[in-house]
Amino acid sequence: MVNKIKISITLNDTLMRLIDLIRGDIPRSKFIENYLKGSIGIFEAIWIYGDELDKITKKEFLYSHISQPLVKPLHRYEGFIDINKESLDFYDVTLEKLFSVPKQDIKSFKVCYDKRFRRLLHSRGANPPMHFSFDKRTIYLFTRPIGGIVFKGNNDAISRALI
Predict the structure, then answer these.
(1) What pTM does this model have?
(2) 130: Cβ–Cβ under 8 A, 6 or more apart, which residues?
(3) Is 36 a residue whose pLDDT tops 70?
(4) Which of 17, 36, 69, 86 lies at 20 to 30 Å from 42 by C-alpha?
């Protein structure tokens, strides 16, 4: 026998808008219940593709070095990432879905510096990016909980979901 317990939760506006975008016609409470059963999480995310590292502007370079470790590491894109059982879904800051990466397409997942995203050139050294390859592209990713302060390359929830 399954016991049902009613609870009340408070969500910030950004998270609520993202839920409303994803849920479609499903009632909020049912969507949240189903989502919690099958989701790893929703995070704020910033990222850059590996082939864009050679094209960063001086402004992007300076901002990423000056603002670390507390604000934003080197990136080109900002938005959200929804990690679920099947895929990683990327959204921009206006909550428009940009693309989805099926988990089975993800190759060479790591949290470290490499030949492309170098410790002192692209970062101040204390916060290596999470990166993975798919469709012959590599994404360097930093995440934080929605409303969090620091973007980090190491996110245990995402790491567990991808390993």
Answers:
(1) 0.74
(2) 109, 110, 111, 140, 141, 142, 143, 153, 154, 155, 158, 159
(3) no
(4) 69
